[in-house]
Amino acid sequence: xxxxxxxxxxxxxxxxxxxxxxxxxxxxxxxxxxxxxxxxxxxxxxxxxxxxxxxxxxxxxxxxxxxxxxxxxxxxxxxxxxxxxxxxxxxxxxxxxxxxxxxxxxxxxxxxxxxxxxxxxxxxxxxxxxxxxxxxxxxxxxxxxxxxxxxxxxxxxxxxxxxxxxxxxxxxxxxxxxxxxxxxxxxxxxxxxxxxxxxxxxxxxxxxxxxxxxxxxxxxxxxxxxxxxxxxxxxxxxxxxxxxxxxxxxxxxxxxxxxxxxxxxxxxxxxxxxxxxxxxxxxxxxxxxxxxxxxxxxxxxxxxxxxxxxxxxxxxxxxxxxxxxxxxxxxxxxxxxxxxxxxxxxxxxxxxxxxxxxxxxxxxxxxxxxxxxxxxxxxxxxxxxxxxxxxxxxxxxxxxxxxxxxxxxxxxxxxxxxxxx
Amino acid sequence: xxxxxxxxxxxxxxxxxxxxxxxxxxxxxxxxxxxxxxxxxxxxxxxxxxxxxxxxxxxxxxxxxxxxxxxxxxxxxxxxxxxxxxxxxxxxxxxxxxxxxxxxxxxxxxxxxxxxxxxxxxxxxxxxxxxxxxxxxxxxxxxxxxxxxxxxxxxxxxxxxxxxxxxxxxxxxxxxxxxxxxxxxxxxxxxxxxxxxxxxxxxxxxxxxxxxxxxxxxxxxxxxxxxxxxxxxxxxxxxxxxxxxxxxxxxxxxxxxxxxxxxxxxxxxxxxxxxxxxxxxxxxxxxxxxxxxxxxxxxxxxxxxxxxxxxxxxxxxxxxxxxxxxxxxxxxxxxxxxxxxxxxxxxxxxxxxxxxxxxxxxxxxxxxxxxxxxxxxxxxxxxxxxxxxxxxxxxxxxxxxxxxxxxxxxxxxxxxxxxxx
Lengths: 421, 421
Fold this sequence. Notes:
Two copies of one chain form a homodimer.
Chain A: H1 5-24, H2 28-44, H3 46-62, H4 67-73, H5 77-92, E1 100-105, E2 111-118, E3 121-126, H6 131-142, E4 146-150, H7 156-173, E5 180-182, H8 189-194, E6 203-207, H9 210-219, E7 232-236, H10 242-254, E8 263-269, H11 270-286, E9 290-293, H12 295-301, E10 305-307, H13 310-314, E11 321-327, H14 330-340, E12 345-349, H15 353-362, E13 367-372, E14 389-391, E15 399-401, E16 407-418
Parallel strand pairs in A: 3-4, 3-6, 4-5, 7-8, 7-12, 8-11, 9-10, 9-11, 12-13
Antiparallel strand pairs in A: 1-2, 2-16, 14-15
């Protein structure tokens, strides 16, 4: 008998909701044992998982997927080892669930505080990288959430093989096997159901291209923790230590190009532009970074600089290209960042105490930095231990999202028989 | 020239977004001065506001609004005085904006923490009570947010008069007049625009009947802080102090009937049911509270108890009616609450340490209480100083929402020139 996609997703949702009730009160010990049982099962299933991945790779080549996509799809032995290590790392993270904070007495005599609890059911939608299957599942389990995983069709065999290992581990641990479910259909309608089952799913986390994320945000009936652009800035102030500025501007642009926390626009105060720009341009030239500058930048650096258009200030290049602008003062720098930026990560380089404080307060981005490279905007660097995504929204969670982003807080009231007067 | 409703809302949205940028970095002093200037302006405009309210009342009577609605609509001198006092109270609250927490060093040498920031623009949709106009505006201003207010058409003249006083106050303070905007059209399409202008509005707070809130949740493209049912429970455990249980069960039901934190179902452990139920039933009888019970309840209390149907366990009566169930043990009580309840507020009465801890951890509600009346679930009782609503969602904020619910946290990174290795 053919089950409709709507019925299938309904069943998946119901099972996830049911599993989440067990997970919510699972002890830290049980959750960690489950993570280690998954570790062991995955280790034993290595040959099967890598073989499944090879099928996806062959299909991908046959379907002429581009090389970047194929690279993300491939599970090398090194990547497999990193997946195993990731499980151990998550097992070692502090369990956020049950943490009680701010417990204080009120004049009525009741004592009021907050207790951290899981969100319930996470719906994860992602493309190509099969290791996300394991990362997302492990973070969900540790934070007491059930998870429904919908990977790309190009990674279906890999994801199914990883899911099988996860099931084997969950069986060992006594937690419900339906704590982690992988959608095993290539039918695109599955996503439409997943993002609208408000009764079964509490939050959607999409990871992939901008098109995917925009579509999901538009159509979801469930809150979405989403990450759009990373158009990051470094502003070199007139009172910058120029050695620090050189190191930071070079690192933020060239450490890695295709990442969301790379700098895409460099803003330089006019008082130091003539000294700083030639020095940093020489370093960029070694890395063949293409510069697109405002008029003043062109005046200082000459022919090596292409004229920047209005569009350049908005652009996340994800490539060895940098927009450069000479700025009259910090107010203009902040106005530029808040207008053209994507509210992801922006840094100032300055030794001035008052300007540094103002920049921190007034730049409306998920990470605001003083004298540090934008490349630090990352869950691991921030000490979250792991990262399920980076949020460019302000609601619920902003910036790198670790275990805490998959939790909520409920109020608890401890009394001795108090009644309301 | 006729402006379309779409253009009008677009203009309102743009103005709010622009105002929010000024508000985000306004000092605590400036914001408090604005609140007090609004206080003074409102005091001077008292005659005009009360006259406008009388027009709404006349129209309401002409349109045959029911008496409960007319009661909520009316601005008596006492309510007007409470509005003025509310402004003073909000001015005295601690400013949440700019608070830096969790600042700690990482192995890389950067110091990382979180800074509390406004959400940006709040869209508030509400019915009848004109004092909400002022409460919402004052909480938004104090938390550095711009706000767009859309009250019910029945309160339009009152809301316009209050808005006028707010504008006068804002003019005195130097903050943008567009920090607070009241939608001055009865056209229902305005709401449709307000809840979908993702570029201009960051959060929607609806307050009103369930129909209104469900419609807004369904159609909004912007995150909604919403409050649906309050189907609250008190569970009297076998190890309850029955004097405390009597006081709490009586207070939770009869202190006020039409409020979301009133108890709607009473669960009683079978070991104490024969002792407890007749005692509490005698107290309820004095207040003419109608009891609807399970079979065992009927056996113990006899003819005074109507048989409860499955529907009763789900119902928020908001009336002198109570569902009563005898329960075998705490596990069953928790299962009942998590199944039939609305995840609002639920309490246990017990002297048992282990059961109390388990109840706190396992009941999935925005407020979970031990030995206290559910009536305490309230922003003022919790010490938030004020309340813009009560959230029954888990995302962003749960339970009573005060100033902090209108804020977010951004990451801040303090370095000495660190670059990513």
